[in-house]
Amino acid sequence: MKSDYQIQEDVMEEFKREPFLKASEIGVAVKNGVVTLSGQVDSYSKKAAAENAAKKVAGVKAVAEDIEIGISPSYHKNRCGNSASSAGCPEMAKEPKYNLLYLYLFLASFA
Predict the structure, then answer these.
(1) Mean pLDDT of the chain
(2) What's the average model confidence in pLDDT over 9-27?
(3) What is the DSSP string of 44-106?
(4) What is the pLDDT of residue 75?
(5) CB neighbourhood size of 10 (10 A)
(6) Which residue of 29, 50, 65, 88 is most buried, as measured by CB atoms within 10 A?
(7) Which pLDDT tens digit goes with each residue over 35-76?
(8) Residue 23 — pLDDT band, cuts 50, 70, 90?
(9) 3-state SS assignment for residue 111
(10) What is the pTM of this model?
């Protein structure tokens, strides 16, 4: 039976095999074989890919995911140097803050 540490390492290694996943965006915690994924990615497909990658690893009993979908912190860092807050980046201060209700209403308008 694998230790939690071994499972964590295997999940992170599995992320490296997924071409569009960035391991730096997703945190991995393991307790008694239950993997918890956390972080922020910029698309649902990345969230699903992370969850599926974790499920592939031998020894994983269950996957709990707490991954948010939005503009990733690495995107802000790339646009504004090392600043991930709107105070240090005038471009970010201008960006509107969209929430899930807005997204739902926007997508519902196409139905």
Answers:
(1) 78
(2) 89
(3) HHHHHHHHHHHHHSTT--EEEEEEEESS-HHHHHHHSTT--SGGG-HHHHHS----HHHHHHH
(4) 57
(5) 21
(6) 50
(7) 999 999 888 999 999 999 999 999 999 999 899 988 755 555
(8) confident
(9) coil
(10) 0.64
Cα–Cα distance between 89 and 40 in angstroms, integer?
A: 20
Sheet holding 34-41, edge to edge: 26-31, 34-41, 62-69
CATH class of this structure's domain 1-70: alpha beta
Long-range CB contacts for residues 21-26, cutoff 8 Å, separation at least 24: 21/46, 21/49, 21/50, 21/53, 22/72, 22/74, 24/74, 25/72, 25/73, 25/74, 26/50, 26/67
Question: Boundaries of CATH 3.30.1340.30 in the chain?
Answer: 1-70
Q: Is the pLDDT of residue 15 over 70?
A: yes
